[in-house]
């Protein structure tokens, strides 16, 4: 349905959460409830006739009639006839009024407190709402994992506790010990009646999984999809990959970060030395956003995604978590819109930092905006540090990263290389109060081309753990100096200069 703009529409669309309270209706249906409410509030003495409402919304009366009929069946709308006027009119049911008030109060409490106490966080939270419908949450406990094997162990434990559903969305799934252990649990859970869905990126078909792997999984009772399957000599969809790593168990526990489901990420196989990776576990309200991210990606290849069913996965009662404090904001980034959410969140941290910013990143392929933010932060006295790999997994990307070293060092940015091996972590931490852990690299693919996700943390207890992990990792890393730049081989410097011309393709 194409709807006309309404003056109050932004608040409705972005501050209300239809799935949380209404359970079984789509966003378009929820809009009708909102328009009815707005017309009733603005013209309390007037009857809301169906034809007039259709005109206000910019819909054909036949379209609106079908939608109103659905809402009436759900007990949310009363559809009546004014016999004297010979016209049909609509009213919100008491159930709808109550549920809309519940949702408004829920959202307003959190955001009003942020606006008053933490205006900086409020502004970022408003941006993520406007750009992608990602709200900020409280009542969420966050655990930080400094290595991939830590996250894998915690994930396996969480999977064993599943009672209702398991959602797994990963850029890489590879046959081996890690996936074998997880798959065994998934099979057991399917037999116990747990719904299991697995989504992985099509690039896995190169050498990690057989092309027909989804059929093999379906035979086990596991719903499985491959995102954007690669068809040799035919596929033109290579650039927009699903780079996310999301696990959701029962809507109460969620994981994300850099860790894929493969032995390399748990350091069971070492091709590039020690694999340094990170992840977070969420428990509580914020898991809802990870669930919604998964459901949206799952439905991308469907003409009519079953959004009516979302409610039973999203409206999950959460127990109070007295130990949880701070604010948790999971968000995603899509290459299919005009918003660069991942880059904007990173820029927000750099531009508002007062004392320090610490960064883990495997790649350093920067545009001018990011270079400016990093160097300006350092020039205004912020202690900016980056830890990158010493052992590269991609030689061209490694060469291009070195092409940025001089400009960053000249501005006062400190650079370290992790000598035990390869850093795959994607982490920002700043001023002991803010952090981001997710899948978003400092390169063009992550910032512009891939589907990504991350979690923004403010005043969460785990931020001290992230800071401690950075300090421990730095102790295992070697600092890069101007003298080191002079020792970079000539062919590497030439390669870096040439690669800048094709950097967006890397």
Description:
The protein has 506 residues and is an alpha/beta fold. It has 3 domains: 95 residues, Orthogonal Bundle (Arc Repressor Mutant, subunit A); 190 residues, Endonuclease, Chain A (2-Layer Sandwich), CATH 3.30.870.10; 165 residues, Endonuclease, Chain A. The chain is 42% helix and 20% strand. The protein contains 19 helices and 19 strands. The chain has an 8-stranded mixed beta sheet with strand order 11-18-17-16-12-13-14-19, with helices on both faces. Strands 3-10-8-7-4-5-6 form a 7-stranded mixed beta sheet, with helices on both faces. Helix 8 packs parallel to helix 9, helix 13 runs parallel beside helix 14 and helix 15 packs across helix 19. The longest helix has 24 residues. The protein is globular. The chain starts with 8 loop residues before the first helix and ends in a 7-residue tail after the last helix. The N terminus is likely disordered.
Task: Name its key features.
506 residues, alpha/beta, Arc Repressor Mutant, subunit A, Endonuclease, Chain A, 8-stranded mixed sheet, 7-stranded mixed sheet, 20% strand, globular
The CATH architecture classification of the largest domain is 2-Layer Sandwich
Residue share in β-strands? 15-25%
Average pLDDT for all residues: 87
Give the oligomeric state: single chain
User: Main β-sheet: number of strands, strand sense, barrel status?
Assistant: 8 strands, mixed
Count of all domains? 3
The low-pLDDT segments are 1-16, 233-237
Helix count, DSSP H or I runs of 4 or more residues:
19
Which class of the largest domain in CATH terms? Alpha Beta
Spatial extent as radius of gyration: 25 Å
- Proportion in helices: 40-55%
